[in-house]
Design a protein that fits this description.
The complex is a heterotrimer of chains A (about 240), B (about 170) and C (about 150). With about 170 residues, chain B is mainly α. Chain B contains five helices and two strands, in the order ααβαβαα. Classes of the chains: A mainly alpha (about 240), B mainly alpha (about 170), C mainly alpha (about 150).
């Protein structure tokens, strides 16, 4: 089986496979060493795009489509939008603080490498992962769901509960971001009106360059800046 | 050599996973941590999809049998299931007698869900980062932790505008 | 983005190309949605691509213009409407005699029921994903940054 796997692929495919993998490793190492946040965010987009190309060589076309659209598209846009509201540079890490994480990561890596020989060979059609439920889905989709794309049939019909949970998770994430930031960008900063009577004289910014005033009150040590920071404002 | 070539993908994926994990652990900048988490998640997806690959296989989209008519593509009137099966599109299925192999679709489905859930958690993490930036005026964990420490221990509020160190006194 | 004069507008190339591309991107999104049964695609990818077309419009023509064209109230409704569509399909299948999310009960025979069920839930997923991605973009884009661009 392993013989068939390696001798059936052309030499150009092997170059493509190893080239893509090498590119992934180079981009990952570059993310570790970079300090400019803009470069790091764009490198993460590049990583997702190369991973999508690697998914295509692994015959996972649906996953490649989703990874390219979501990982290299939306994810990069959201990170850039958040970076615009935060900082541009990250401070470097002192050398002595890197040993702890490095030790943990090396131990975890060695433990996982110890388990690699027990994994099935790359491309094995009879591995336990490829034997039971997956082949059942392939065999039964034509007669039960009659949709050529087996991934859609499994996602929508056989595993419909999981996809329902996924839709609810996306909804919950949107809800969470709206609660944290507000659909017009003014959650947590300006208090709402009660019966038309504004509780605070502050107004939401209209796009002018004035910073919101009195963000931190210093007269009361117990009055910690928080999401509900304006509750005890004396103004 | 065959053993090495057949398992080298897993080794590379583990290296990528550990790189992403190192960025999460070691970096003190919140956005860099989130980027490391995203790299780690994508590496885990690579691992799963590597498991699903079948050598010589097709993407898991069933191929139509050359001999069958176009079947339900011209669905102009209601067609009974029996008539559909009698007239209809047949697909080449893997198994006895056919030489077509498909990749395993189940990990693809799981990873599709995982990708979308990953971007959902990323959005929440970034929203939290923006709010932290507004309160602490920084996104470096060291400064945030020392601010919290000073506040909890001594009651001193050392957060505030950092570029001019001017306090707003109302 | 108000240029002093149309001739010296530095963004005229971007605007022209965006006006050409944005409808094509939206059309591609619907193609991916409805051909998810026959090739790679489906609700999630289509939702993201549709959201990206609107985000491109917001990036080129301004967030206020985008909010006029796709108002936040509609986005808020869309977020919950998609989940309601998905759960509603399950409940309708339940009412019609099957179990929850068993699409075979939705039509006169099982295969057609499966087709209708998959169509309905993919529509629900499209609505939810587009609305949520747009809501997140509006939330991040409308937040006023603390540090102005000149102080970086």
């Amino acid at each position: 089986m392993i013989q068939a796997a390696t001798t059936s692929s052309h030499i150009s495919t092997i170059f493509l496979d190893f080239g893509l993998l090498a590119l992934l490793v180079i981009v990952a190492f570059a993310i570790v060493r970079m300090r400019s946040l803009f470069a790091i965010v764009m490198l993460q987009g590049v990583y997702s795009l190369v991973a999508a190309a690697w998914f295509v060589t692994l015959d996972a076309v649906d996953v490649a489509f989703t990874e390219a659209a979501v990982g290299a598209g939306i994810s990069t846009v959201l990170m850039l939008a958040a970076m615009l509201l935060a900082d541009r540079e990250s401070t470097p890490i002192a050398m002595k603080r890197q040993w702890g994480p490095l030790a943990v990561v090396l131990i975890a890596g060695v433990a996982m490498l110890y388990a690699v020989p027990d994994l099935p060979a790359y491309g094995d059609a009879n591995s336990p992962a490829n034997s039971y439920v997956g082949t059942d889905y392939l065999a039964k989709t034509a007669t039960e769901v009659d949709v050529p794309n087996v991934v859609t049939a499994v996602l929508a019909s056989y595993r419909g509960y999981d996809t329902f949970g996924e839709a609810v998770v996306i909804f919950a994430a949107g809800l969470g971001v709206l609660l944290l930031l507000g659909l017009n960008g003014n959650a947590g900063r300006y208090r709402a009106e009660v019966d038309g009577h504004k509780l605070s004289p502050e107004h939401a910014p209209s796009g002018s360059t004035d910073k919101p005033a009195a963000k931190h009150s210093s007269e009361d040590a117990a009055h910690r800046p928080s999401i509900t920071q304006f509750e005890g404002d004396s103004s | 050599m065959d053993g090495l070539l057949s398992h080298v993908n897993y080794v590379v994926v583990i290296i990528l996973m550990m790189t992403g994990l190192y960025v999460v652990f070691a970096s003190r900048n919140l956005i860099k941590k989130l980027v490391g988490l995203s790299v780690f998640q994508t590496s885990v997806f690579l691992f799963y999809i590597t498991l699903a690959k079948v050598a010589g296989g097709q993407p898991p989209i069933l191929i139509k049998d050359k001999g069958s008519p176009t079947g339900y593509d011209d669905h102009s009137a209601y067609v009974d299931t029996v008539e559909l099966a009698a007239s209809g599109a047949t697909y080449i299925l893997p198994g006895q007698g056919s030489d077509v192999l498909y990749s395993n679709p189940l990990p693809h489905v799981l990873i599709l869900t995982a990708i979308v859930v990953g971007v959902a958690t990323l959005a929440i993490g970034l929203a939290l980062t923006v709010r932290i930036r507004e309160v602490y005026q920084t996104i470096e964990m060291d400064t945030i932790e020392s601010d919290d420490f000073h506040y909890n221990l001594e009651g001193i509020d050392t957060s505030g505008p950092r570029f001019d160190r001017v306090r707003d006194t109302t | 983005m108000t240029p002093e004069s149309p001739v010296s507008d530095p963004h005229v190339l971007l605007r022209v190309i965006a006006k050409f591309l944005i409808p094509l991107i939206a059309l591609f999104a619907f193609y991916v949605q409805f051909h998810g049964d026959y090739g790679p695609g489906g609700g999630f990818q289509a939702g993201v691509i549709l959201a990206v077309s609107i985000i491109l419009y917001a990036l080129i023509f301004g967030l206020d213009e985008a909010k006029r064209a796709f108002p936040p109230a509609l986005i808020r409704i869309g977020m919950s409407l998609g989940v309601l569509l998905y759960g509603g399909t399950g409940v309708v299948a339940w009412m019609l005699g099957g179990e929850f999310l068993n699409y075979s009960a939705l039509a006169h025979d099982a295969i057609h029921g499966q087709h209708w069920g998959i169509l309905a839930i993919e529509l629900g997923v499209l609505t939810t994903v587009t609305s949520v991605m747009l809501a997140i973009f509006y939330a991040f884009g409308s937040r006023q940054p603390d540090i102005e661009d000149g102080e970086w």
